[in-house]
Design goal:
The complex is a heterotrimer. By secondary structure, chain A is mostly helical. Chain A is built from 16 helices and two strands. In chain A, strands 1-2 form a two-stranded antiparallel ribbon. Chain A is extended and about 110 Å long. Helices cover 40% and strands 17% of the residues of chain B. In chain B, helix 3 crosses helix 9 and helix 9 crosses helix 13. Chain B is globular. In chain C, the strands form four sheets. Chain C has a three-stranded antiparallel beta sheet with strand order 1-2-9. In chain C, strands 3-6 form a two-stranded antiparallel ribbon. Chain C has a two-stranded antiparallel sheet with strand order 4-5. Among the domains of chain C are: 49 residues; 246 residues, MetI-like (MetI-like fold). Helix content of chain C is 63%, strand content 7%. By secondary structure, chain C is mostly helical. Classes of the chains: A mainly alpha, B alpha/beta, C mainly alpha. Chains A and C meet through helix 2, helix 10, helix 11, helix 14 and helix 16 of A and helix 2, helix 4, helix 5, helix 11 and helix 13 of C.
Chain lengths: 435, 338, 425
């Protein structure tokens, strides 16, 4: 018999390091990059693509020249510094012409006006984007379009003020009549009153006040707008103006009234069925046939109107999605409370449906903002093609291809990417609210 | 929500403000600004500089017209028009007059209902090729790729020329001059065709102008001139005679430099009538007496405008050729002022 | 929205038109109808007045007059003696070609990227995320312009391919060479590929005013018949398998059925490839793919692929984890899990938004204007409009055509969607 010597370990062994292949970056790489033949191949292809792109772009970006007066000078500097075969970006063009990309031909001494309008715009949309801000800020949002118009186009301050008074008149008529006549009729009458005010009183009144109390800014013609200023003006105006239209169209599409429904569907499908560019050509070529003879107004305004109609059809579909996502119980609950159609929409349906639709609205806006580049085809100076053509027509910058596209592209990317991140953040936030 | 209604009002206001009066002349006077349709960018003829100010041969006629009608050569609003939008802009009243290298053709005059009031530049369609292509005549272009600016008479002339010479080609239809030049310079086409003056203007701005040649063949007649809407004869007369005043001024040696002196010292009754010191031709046009004098003073007579913008002293270096005065073997001829 | 309706009142009063919910909707509809008709007649009236003021007429007669201009890419026979109508047809076919090819490329690329974005491979999924974000957040116009610039700036000019006698004497090589043993040439204008040609072809068929290439037709018929025969063969094999449990070997029969008749037909027709040859200015012969077409189609495909990738990703993520686990439990490899289990289910989620991407791509082909590709807008809405000055007719016709295409695509796709939809009881 053998004696067993009992052995009890009293102190634990130190944990050993995993083998070299099983830890740290190597483990990570094995799990994430080389977990099988397929993945290895993919990773290698990915690496090759990255290296190829980097080998072509990095020297070009690094050799960029910021101080030069023409493309030839740029090339000379690059050759002198980096050798005869070196290629490099000529950012000097951006340095010299950035203001045209941002403001177009807007008078240089007035650049503070669009800048201020832009900053105020951020303030105005903040309460819409972030629910936590005080609701009183909405009053500024409501006033903002008038401030913005006055800042950008200039002229007498009384014109927007008198237009605003028209809205006051509308609200007054609506308030007085709504209890007796119902929403559609009183809104219609209010609109008639306001239209009469704008058509008959507007011009003489603002001129009269202006002659007594001249307060105004130097007026700027809209043909001097260009670059991102133009894109933002068209994009923001169209999306803001298309929201109410889109809501009405979405309601029309869900309406019980056959005629209203048919008209809404017809409008939405027509607009969604044709390319934006044909609508822009309509603005520039056909509107003259459809309006009374001898009428004529600004191409930018015409473009904004057509782009608004375009956006409205898309927004209508987004909001229809929001309406469809609401459980039926909400409608029934509204009915049960004895609310009429407009009360139910205003108090129960729309607040929820709009909230659900905000991500969709933001992505429509991103799409619309990108599409504003198409206005170049009707002769407006968009940042991508219009201003670039102007820059390239200059003998100093003839033959510059990549830099303007990259510059405008990067700005578009930053704006659109930022907005899409916002919309994703919002989506996540709203999701927790609902489930 | 408020913005849409607001814009609606704006447009409504613009609608009512825009309803025009009887004729273009009254409109322009009432407005105080001449709306002139010009090229978006053709060096020498009409192109904005870095500050957005328009310069050029066609633009000078706009200035002369504004000076004659409004008394101030700066009261012009230049509406850049593309080959595609120009006639619509004129027909819709967006511009009062179109001075944008537009060829006078039968169908434009008769079918599109415009009036070409004069020919300020006699042109013809030509070809530009790179020197190292080794081509010296357009007849050697069989099988070539040709860049064409669309929205012009050029594509029809080109089709006819190649057909008549039993040759084939590949057209590349490009929207505007800048883009056509880019494609041509990048080698996307062998030849670039447009009006010979436009070719010279394009060539002048190329960094390596000497490597490009303009072929000798001129394959079409392109009388370029200002045009107005059909049926507005009063306004048509104003544009026509403003232009003739510039031509006559060159003929009689009236320049922007000596105009004041001429007006006071000349004994030639024709010059006196032109400058408004005798007779009252202006009143017949619905203008004042000194309209002609102001038109000439704005940027000089026809010869001065030509030399300053596209003549031999400029990078474009166009010869007068057909555009010399009739007294020097050209076609520019002003009817008598009486 | 259903409203609780009031109980019928005794008699009808005028006020009930406004106050009674039963009549109010009728009142509103009548008002809307009147307003709509008034608006419509206002538009028509303005148009008539404007046309009269400009002394123009509204007729489509110009479509049958001689066009007089040339087009660089024609899928059907066209010369400058053809009519404007024919030119519009050429443009329409070019639009459809670009849209069709673009949709196919975008779908493949989009599915590929969408699947890879969910890959466990860190590098690949990040790369795909970058691709999607970069392409989605920049205007498509930029991609089109960029594609066209890349194609024309990085490729050699046709003259670089030329070998002159002086060069031969000096033993010099031309600056650029054709690819694939002298069959493909990529210049800064176009891609020149070998073209299929037949030596003794059949005569063209005239059918309902259309001129059909009977060689292609014959090939399609023969090939279609082969596919049908192959289908019969395979279903027979499946039946045998179901009855006996043994599947007869069919692959060599399939191959023979598919290949031999077509090959025989091609041989009988004298099929051969026509290679592009450098002439004085350009490559001639073969098939020419213009860079304007390639740039437009490729840029639209790359752009749309980013959106499709997101749709595919969302579709795959919508499939519950259980499906993955069940497939894994059955022993399916990841690739087969994807193709047999996940994608077929995800398809139902994917198809509706995919349709709208196809529609967007088709509508975006109108950006051909940026690269001078002669699509419908370039012919009918471009040169024809300029030459004839018929803005109203051309634009209306163009809109009507685009609208028809869009409605056709969405209704076809909706039919397809209905076919793959989950059949619920």
């Amino acid at each position: 018999m053998t004696e067993f010597t009992p052995f009890v370990r009293t102190d634990m062994l130190e944990q050993r390091e995993p083998p070299a292949g099983q830890r740290g970056i190597i483990l990570w790489a094995r799990e994430n990059l080389f977990s099988g033949p397929m993945n290895t191949a993919l990773s290698l292809i990915g690496l090759v693509v990255i290296l190829w792109l980097a080998s072509h772009m990095v020297p070009w970006l690094l050799h960029g020249v910021w101080n030069a007066n023409s493309l030839t000078e740029c090339r000379e500097i690059i050759t002198a510094t980096w050798g005869p075969d070196a290629t490099g970006a000529c950012w000097a063009m951006v340095r010299e012409r950035w203001h045209q990309y941002v403001f177009g031909f807007y008078p240089m001494d007035l650049y503070w006006r669009p800048t201020l309008a832009f900053v105020l715009m951020l303030v105005a949309i903040a309460p819409i984007l972030y629910q936590s801000l005080p609701r009183q800020m909405m009053w500024f949002t409501a006033l903002y379009p008038f401030v913005c118009y006055w800042l950008l186009w200039g002229g007498t301050i009384w014109a927007p003020v008198v237009v605003l008074m028209g809205f006051g008149l509308f609200a007054l008529v609506f308030r007085l009549l709504v209890s007796g006549l119902g929403v559609p009729v009183s809104a219609g009458l209010g609109l008639v009153a306001a239209a009469a005010w704008w058509l008959l009183v507007q011009t003489p009144l603002s001129a009269a006040i202006h002659s007594v109390l001249p307060v105004g800014l130097r007026s700027v013609d809209s043909d001097q707008f260009g670059g991102f200023l133009l894109s933002i003006v068209i994009g923001v105006t169209a999306i803001a103006a298309s929201l109410p239209m889109g809501i009405l169209l979405a309601l029309g599409r869900k309406s019980d009234m056959m005629l209203v429904r048919t008209l809404s569907v017809g409008f939405i499908e027509f607009i969604r069925g044709v390319p934006l560019i044909t609508l822009l050509f309509t603005a520039s070529l056909l509107l003259q046939y459809f309006l009374p003879p001898e009428t004529n107004f600004d191409i930018i305004l015409r473009v904004i109107i057509l782009v608004t109609l375009f956006a409205a059809a898309y927004i209508a579909e987004v909001i229809r999605g929001g309406l469809a996502a609401l459980p039926r119980g909400q409608y029934e609950a509204a009915d049960a409370l004895g609310l009429d159609y407009w009360q139910a929409q205003r108090l129960i349906i729309m607040p929820q449906a709009l909230k659900i639709s905000i991500p969709g609205i933001v992505s429509s806006f991103i799409g619309l903002f990108k599409d504003t580049t198409l206005v170049a085809f009707v002769g407006l100076q968009d940042p991508l093609k219009g201003i670039t053509a102007v820059v390239r027509a200059d003998i100093n910058w003839k033959g510059i291809y990549w830099e303007p596209y990259i510059f405008a592209g990067v700005i578009f990317f930053l704006i659109c990417f930022g907005m899409s991140r916002y919309s994703m953040w919002l989506e996540r936030k709203l999701k927790t609210d609902h489930r | 929500m408020k913005k849409s209604v607001f814009l609606g009002t704006l447009s409504a206001a613009a609608l009512f403000a825009g309803i025009a009066g009887a004729g273009t002349l009254e409109d322009v006077k009432a407005r105080g600004v001449l709306n002139c349709g010009v090229n978006v960018g053709l060096t020498g003829f009409g192109a904005p500089d870095a500050n957005g100010n328009y310069q050029g041969f066609d633009v000078s006629l706009c200035k002369a017209l504004a000076a004659a009608v409004l008394g101030d050569a700066t009261k012009v609003k230049y509406a850049p028009t593309t080959g595609e939008t120009r006639f619509t802009a004129l027909a819709s009243g967006e511009v009062d007059v179109l001075i944008r290298n537009s060829t006078w053709t039968f169908s434009r005059d008769v079918d599109l209902k415009f009036d070409f009031v004069a020919v300020n530049y006699y042109d013809g369609q030509g070809f530009m090729v790179k020197k190292d292509l080794g081509v010296s005549s357009a007849k050697e272009l069989d099988g070539a790729t040709v860049c064409i600016q669309t929205g012009t008479t050029t594509e029809l002339n080109l089709a006819d020329f190649f057909k008549a010479n039993n040759m084939s080609y590949t057209p590349v239809n490009v929207g505007d001059d800048t883009e056509a030049q880019r494609q041509y310079l990048a080698g996307a086409c062998d030849a670039y065709t447009t009006d010979a003056s436009g070719l010279a203007a394009s060539r002048a701005t190329m960094p390596d102008a000497d490597n490009h040649i303009i072929l000798p063949e001129i394959i079409s007649k392109e009388p370029l001139g200002p045009l107005v809407r059909h049926g507005d004869n009063v306004w048509g007369d104003v544009v026509r005679w403003t232009y003739f005043a510039l031509v006559a001024a060159e003929e009689y040696g009236v320049t922007s430099a000596n105009i004041e002196e001429m007006a006071s010292t000349t004994t030639n009754p024709e010059i006196k009538r032109l400058l408004g010191t005798e007779g009252d031709l202006g009143a017949m046009l619905g203008l004042d007496k000194e309209w002609g004098k102001r038109a000439i003073a704005a940027s000089g007579n026809y010869g001065e405008i030509f030399e300053a913008n596209i003549g031999s002293a400029t990078p474009i270096k166009l010869a007068r050729g057909l555009n010399a005065l009739w007294t020097q073997g050209g076609l520019q001829y002003a009817p008598p002022f009486r | 929205m259903a409203f609780v309706q009031d109980t019928p009142k005794d008699s009808f009063r005028l006020g009930m038109l406004i106050y009674d919910t039963r009549y109010r909707s009728i009142t509103i509809q009548v008002i809307v109808l009147v307003l709509f008709l008034a608006f419509l007649s206002w538009l028509v009236n303005n148009t008539i007045e404007n046309l009269a003021a400009k002394d123009r007429t509204f007729d489509f007669g110009f479509l049958w007059s001689r066009a007089g201009y040339d087009i660089n890419q024609t899928l059907i026979p066209y010369t400058n003696d053809s009519t404007h109508m024919r030119a519009a047809m050429v443009g329409l076919l070019n639009t459809l070609l670009s849209a069709f090819v673009g949709c196919i490329i975008a779908t493949f690329l989009g599915v590929f990227i969408g699947v890879l974005r969910l890959s466990k491979n860190w590098l690949v999924s990040r790369l795909m995320t970058v691709y999607v974000e970069v392409f989605r957040n920049v205007p498509v116009l930029l991609w089109i312009l960029l594609a066209s610039t890349v194609l024309s700036e990085t490729t050699p000019a046709p003259s670089d391919f030329r070998v002159t006698e002086a060069m031969q004497a000096a033993g010099e090589q031309p600056k650029a060479h054709m690819l694939f043993n002298g069959s493909v040439a990529i210049t800064n204008r176009s891609m020149n590929l070998p073209a299929p040609l037949v030596e003794h072809g059949l005569p063209r068929l005239e059918f309902l005013g259309l001129s059909l290439n009977s060689n292609v037709l014959a090939f399609l018929i023969v090939f279609g018949a082969s596919i049908y025969a192959n289908h019969l063969l395979r279903s027979n094999a499946r039946r045998v398998q179901e009855q006996t449990g043994r599947r007869p070997v069919t692959w060599w029969k399939s191959l023979a059925i598919l290949l031999i008749p077509s090959a025989a037909l091609l041989f009988a027709l004298g099929f051969h490839l026509d290679y592009p040859v450098m002439t004085k200015f350009n490559f001639r012969g073969g098939m020419e793919l213009l860079h304007s077409f390639t740039a437009l189609t490729l840029a639209l495909a790359l752009y749309t692929a980013a959106f499709i990738a997101e749709i595919v990703r969302a579709g795959i993520m919508a499939i519950s984890r259980g499906q993955h686990e069940a497939a894994a439990a059955l022993g399916l490899r990841p690739g087969r899990t994807m193709s047999l289990v996940i994608l077929p289910q995800a398809l139902r989620v994917i198809i509706p938004p995919l349709i709208s991407q196809y529609l967007n791509l088709t509508k975006n082909t109108s950006l051909a204007i940026a690269v001078s590709y002669m699509d419908l807008r370039g012919t009918l809405g471009g040169i024809t409009l300029n030459q004839t000055g018929k803005e109203l007719e051309c634009m209306l016709l163009m809109m009507a055509i685009y609208l028809t295409i869009s409605l056709l695509i969405s209704s076809l796709m909706n039919l397809f969607n209905r076919a793959v939809k989950l059949k619920e009881r």
